[in-house]
Amino acid sequence: MAAGKKLGARPDSRRRNAVPQHRHARHPSPRLRGLLLAVALALALTGGAVLVPRLRSGPAAVPAGTASTPGRAVVPTASLGPAPTPTPSPAGAGRPADALAGWAGPLAARLDIPEVALQAYGYAELVIAAAQPSCQLHWSTLAGIARIESDHGRAHATLRPDGRTEPPIIGPALDGRDGRLRVADTDGGLLDHDRTLDHAVGPMQFLPSTWHDWAIDADGDGVADPHDLDDAALAAGNYLCSGGRTLSTADGWWAALLAYNGIQAYARDVFNAADDYGRRSHD
Asked: In the chain, how many domains are there?
């Protein structure tokens, strides 16, 4: 949820990301990392030419402020924004996503996204573009999700320079109240410190059972941590792209978002946030 709102309190929220379709590689390989510069160059050449996925027709799928024609898909006018472009960094120095500092720095202040968060979203895009080019995940979609879920790790927390939130972000108990599902504990309280009920955790608000299946160490620190935005953003990207989805299509984009959180209003909020980031990244 966004800052100023109670995490997990969205009316009628029914999170469906507890049943992933299949797993992906746990960590980008050294060879894959070596491909990132080439991939980034290709993406940079096409950045801005791809549009945010078209929406399904019908009132339930039309975001506020977007014109529509009955019976036809709605096409947003905003570009997805500039593609992440890494710059060379010394071997073994810092987070892999630090290579995106030159790209993320100018955008971060303009978009009110912490630079470390924007680097995490851009890095996830590059890794997935190399491993699953048909998915066409864009950083703005991950940024839209993180904006709604935790204001990029700033909801009742601080996002540290290493990508971790302090304190860890733990949503309310999934106790069946206020429109939330009731979800019994699945991890022995390991991630959410509750041995009775589950809570969504981290800046991307993963359910513990989902994190168990999709955990990944994106920054190479030896730990797959849902409270680390580097890890959480790449895990979320892998989840969105699961099942061979293509996020450049209306059906693929909406299927991915509704799998992450099965509420149309949630997907519209994410769409609006991602669309806004795409627009303002070109201002």
From this structure: 1
In a domain, 15, yes or no: no
**Token couple for 185:** 């504990």
Q: Whole-number mean pLDDT of the chain?
A: 76
Please list the helix, strand and coil fractions of the chain in percent, rounded to the nearest 5, in that order.
40, 5, 55
Query: Does 20 map to a domain?
Result: no
pTM for the full predicted model: 0.75
Distance CA 242, CA 238 (A): 6
| Distance from C-alpha of 153 to C-alpha of 278, rounded to nearest angstrom | 20
Q: Is residue 241 part of a domain?
A: yes
Termini Cα distance of the chain: 26
Quick check: 36 and 130 in contact, CB under 8 A?
A: yes
190-228 residue pLDDT tens: 999 999 999 999 999 999 999 999 999 999 999 999 999
Residue ranges making up the domain that contains 120: 30-66+74-88+95-280
